[in-house]
Every structure is written in structure tokens, then in C-alpha cells.
Predict the structure.
Amino acid sequence: MNAAEKTASYTWAGRFSEPVSDLVKRYTASVMFDQRLWAQDIRGSLAHARMLARQGIISAADLADIERGMDAVRQEIEAGQFVWSLDLEDVHLNIEKRLTALVGDAGKRLHTGRSRNDQVATDIRLYVRDSIDAILDRLKTFQLALVALAEREAATPMPGFTHLQVAQPITFGHHMLAYFEMFARDRERFADCRKRANRLPLGAAALAGTTYPIDRESVAAELGFEGVCQNSLDAVSDRDFAIEFAACAALFMTHISRLSEELVLWMSPRVGFIQIADRFCTGSSIMPQKKNPDVPELARGKTGRVNGHLIALLTLMKSQPLAYNKDNQEDKEPLFDAIDTVLDTLAIFADMMGGITVKAEALRAALTQGFATATDLADYLVKKGLPFRDAHEAVGHAVKAAEQKSVDLSGLTLSELKAFSPLVAEDVFAVLTVEGSLAARNHTGGTAPEQVRAAIVRARERLETV
Ligand code: ARG
């Protein structure tokens, strides 16, 4: 092939007199990564073709050819027989060229009233929507695993921490439900993002709309979109939905990362609060005694990656003039990687949380080390009439004395406690116990086992309604 012949083989070759170099071809092509849009691309093309036929823009015979050809293309792709070509730049041109090879002129008519600009915007919106549906499903399974663990350990006492110092007794179930809430908000955010992603760009064509008598609303209805994009320039150039998705993903991963950090810490032999099932850990190639929490560590690490994708997409958009620019081709890899990371993380975490063994004795031992019921003693004195600040000071002295004696507050005798406040009586020991402290926080959102169980019932109900 001479240069002119080589140039002529491109879809857009008409006005060009020399071909691009191999490097430029590779640099500008996206088929290596956008071929995963194939199912959405075919769905969008079929809906477009049906509309063209309904509107009398193409003939019924052309539509029949297109439908038959697309079916063959789908089968080839599913069977792994489709030959993806870098020369054809992207998923859209690859599929269109193959369709045309299979059915002739009808394939060439498919692109009537359409541009790759509104085509790709449609494909990505469909892909994001499908991905969100899969994510919502997996989030639910993961949340159910959290609730099951919370239920198993609804009354298991552990220290609650602030500043990583023992603060007050809580239950393990209560701690798990804190994460349930974070992921419940993530579900809401993904579902909300879906609404704005779910608008049809097709019909915007390259940027200004098209001169054919199209019917955008019927295409939207066929593809399950909630409406059509209202401005053709915005339709082809907007990637807000991808940015929003990445923001949802980054926040979700941030929650996963916080949970992972705790799992890693709790699994350390120094802490020993939990055991993660062996299938989520790996050993060391040199230290035979090691069992490392690789899965939570990697999830913590992958959070950085997804946060990076959000920044990449924001930066991609920030200087783009209207309307479509090729910059937008760069939206795909960050988006796809964010989707893959979220989906894999969810699948693995749902399984992993179910396989956690909680070491109740270690949790209780940790509770007796940090004067966790000091606030309860202060509250006790306040209820007997002492102003809170005075009670705070009296308990501070009591803690110091207990520390010197190397006992917990409940290890001080009644007369020793009375020395810090004459208001102390025999009933003080009921509030100094862990069980008493827990049971006393008996209100919505509190850690009393009774409240944790009620929260679990509500959590399951909430999962059923969305
Ligand atoms: N591969 C392109 C993308 O991902 C498709 C749109 C190309 N449009 C164009 N006018 N070059 O954005």
C-alpha cells in the first residue's frame, strides 16, 4: 500500500493526504481500553437505528440488516473471535466497520444523524449506569455481612477509642454499625449519581444537533434513560456524571480504608482483637511466623489510586472549551479502574467480614486497662448533685490513685473512692462495671446492647426498602 492508499482506508480519510505514524496511531487510539464498551455501543446503535427506521430516515430493510449484522457482531465478540484493530481507533469504528463488512450499505447508514461524540457519551453513561447497579447490589450484600457480624457481637464489650486511647466501653456490634452507616450513605450517593448519569446524549450529534427529523425521547425510553440531555453542546461535552461517580467511589474507598486500618490494627498480635480468615492473609517468604492482613492493606492502598482517578477526571475537565474535545477519551481508564476497584473490593470485603473471629477476652482485657468507666463515675456524681466540672476533677484524682495501685477504677475500695467524693455510696460499683456502663447508654444511636439490636432491625429494614 502506498501512503495515499493507506490514508484512504481510514473512516475519515477523505480530506487527508498522508497517514498517521504508528506512534500517533497508538497515541490517539482508544480501542485497547474502550472495547469494554462494546455491549453498550451495540445497545445504543440498535436503539438509534430503530428510531431512524420509525422516522423513515432509513428503510425497514436497512434496519433488518443492521439488526442481523449487530447480532453477528455480538456473537463474534462474545466468542472472542472479533478482531479488534488499532487502525480503526476505537470501539465505535471497529464495530461499525465490521457491521458494514457483514451487511453492506445498511451498516454505512447507521451513522446517519449521529456522531461519535454523542455516541461515546451515550455508551459511557450506559456503562456507568450498569456499573452503579452492580455496585448497589454488592453494597447491599456487604452491608448485610456487616449487620450479621454486628448481630453476632451485639453485646460484646470492647473499648471505644478517641485519639487511639481507650475512651468508653462500646460493643463490637455498635462499632460495626458505625460502618454500616457510612456505607448506607455511599449507597445513597451512588443511587443519586445514577439519576444524573441516566440522561440520553444521542441526538446532539457532533455538537449542534442534527438536520434529520429524529425522535430523541423514544430512544431514551428504549434505552431506559430518564430523559434526554437538554442542550446539545452540553450533551457531548459533559462528563460530570463520571466525575461524580469517581467522587462517590473515592469516598466509598475512604470508608473501606478506615475499616481496613482498624482491621490491620486489630489483627496485630500486639492488639489481638480479631482474627481474619486465613484465605484473606498471606505469609512471609522469610519469616515463618507471619500472617499478614494483605487484603485490608491493599484496600487501604487502592484508596489512593481511586482518589487519584477523581483528581485526574477533575483535571481533565477543568480547561476544556465547549464542546467535545479529544481530551475526553482520557476519561475511560480512570473511570474503568475506579469501577473495577470498587466492585472487587466489595466482593472481597463482603466475604471477609463474614469470616472475622472476634476475641472477646482480648477486647475485655483492653477495656480494663484504660479506665473506660471514668465518665460513668463522673456522671454518677453529677446525678448525686455535684456540678459536672467538679465531678470531672474528683474522678481525675481517683484515676490517678487507681493508676498508682495498678487497678481499674472498680478495683478501688468503697472507702478509697469515698475519699474523692463523700457522695460515693455502695451503688457506685454498678456503674463502674462495663455492663452497667453499656446498658446506661440506652437511647437511639447509643451503644446499649438493647439499642444495638434495635438498630440492627432498622438496618435490615432499610436495606429492604432501597
Ligand atoms: N474515542 C473517542 C472518545 O473516547 C470517541 C469520540 C471521538 N470523536 C471525535 N470527534 N474524534 O472520546
In short: The beta strands are 157-162, 165-171, 274-276, 356-358. The mean pLDDT is 95.
